[in-house]
Amino acid sequence: MHTFKDNASRTWSLSITIDSIKRVRQELDFNLTRSDFDKMLQELLGDPVQLCDVIFCLIKPEAEKNNVSDADFGRAMAGDTIEQAATALLEELADFTPNARDRAQLQRLIAALRSLSDKARDLMDQKMKAELAAAEVEIEKTFGLSSTSSPASSASTPDR
What we know:
This protein is mainly alpha-helical. It contains 6 helices and 2 strands.
């Protein structure tokens, strides 16, 4: 069982069992045990709304006990909270897998997806920085602006 906190400071216990998988299938028509696990993960991680719907469906008995509606839960899910909940879900999915070899394979796949995601973010960050620097140079050329804000040196200032 893995836990995460929502933005309302509620701690949720995420547990994947046969019962919770059936609930997700029945209520959302989403299969957490598909054979194309990598595509299923891409669908979930690429759509935060669907991800949160699946997570809510998994924690629904606990939410009902605490009188937290789907809408209440959704209002408390944003930013880092979604990533923490996604991590809990991925770890639960791997732990649920009955076969040790399959479980190890899923854990490697999840680690690889995280690594690729981090690398993609790093590349996007570098690209954005380079594009901003190029745009800054272009603006400086166009408007004759200096890229430094320091005052001119005394050697270049005429005597009075």
